[in-house]
Structure formats: structure tokens, C-alpha cells
Amino acid sequence: MNRQLAQWDPIKELNQVGSRLSSFFSGKEDLPLAGLEESDWSPAVDISEDSSEYLIVADLPEVHKDEVKVGIEEGTLRISGERKSESEEKDEKRKFHRIERHYGSYQRSFRLPENIDQSHIKADFSDGVLHVHLPKRDTKPQQVIPVK
Q1: Domains of the chain (ranges plus CATH)?
Q2: Are 70 and 81 in contact (CB under 8 A)?
Q3: Contact of 82 with 60, CB cutoff 8 Å
């Protein structure tokens, strides 16, 4: 019996594990409101639900209300906008020694569950925090029809 041994590539295997972990931790599983894509900088988001709605809370520090866009297209909720750099907004003579905060365009997208009432979605923005309220539609229990 002549078998060829496959050469083990530890780097390739580490990359595959890294991809699986990245997918898992980025919320790209097939769950209600699972994230679809992210930009280079991505606002932190909490998603919760109660009996009447889902709630998405996004931290958008130093972003102005008029620079926040929320929209729905083909069953996907999209939050996008831009956070401008302090160096762009302030005195050009200022010399920065370290910039650790993220700036630029951002976008977060979430698949909406089927039980969302899209006509009543509301969003409010205050103190750098965006709240998107996604009300659930009333889902009546399935009616059982007796067979005669």
C-alpha cells in the first residue's frame, strides 16, 4: 500500500484557527441580528431583547448626531457614519505624539430577524450613544386545524 503523507503546515493551520476564532468573536454566526461586516474602526455595540423589542446600543463618542446614518435595506440594518480626527478639526500647528483613538468612516450591519416590525423602528442619539429600537411583530401561535 503506497500512501503519500501530507506535509503539515503549522502556519496554515494557525491561520485557519485564527479565521474561525475571528468569525466566532465578531458575531458572524447565523443568529438574529448577527453582524455582517465591519469597517476598520467599529463602534462597540450591545444587542439585547425583551418580549416586545430588540435594542441595539452603539457607542459613538465624539460623533455628531447629523453624522450618524441608520437605514434598512433587504432585511439588513446598517449603522454608518464618520468620526473626524481631532487633528483635522483643531489647530493644524498641534503636533501629536500618539494617536490611539480610532477615526474615519465606520459601518456596522446586522441581519434583521423575520419578526421585526420594520415600519416602527426608532433610533435616538444622545451623549454619543445611539439606541435603535426594533419592535417585534405580534406572532400568533399556529392554529391547529383538526383533521376529520
Answers
A1: 40-87+103-139 (2.60.40.790)
A2: no
A3: no
Q: Identity (one letter) of the amino acid at 106?
A: Y
Q: Rounded CA gap, 51 and 31, in Å?
A: 17
Query: Which tens digits make up the pLDDT trace of 75-134?
Result: 899 999 988 876 555 556 777 787 777 788 899 999 999 899 999 999 999 999 999 999
Report the first-to-last Cα separation within the chain, whole angstroms.
64
Contact 108, 28 (CB under 8 A): no
Spatial distance between the Cα atoms of 15 and 37, rounded to a whole number of angstroms: 20
What span, in angstroms and rounded, lies between the C-alpha atoms of 105 and 66?
14
Fill in the DSSP letter of residue 119: G
Count of Cβ atoms closer than 10 Å to residue 20 Cβ: 10
* Residue 105 contacts residue 27 (beta carbons within 8 Å): no
Q: What is the pTM of this model?
A: 0.66
DSSP character at residue 137: P
**C-alpha cell read off for 48:** 439585547
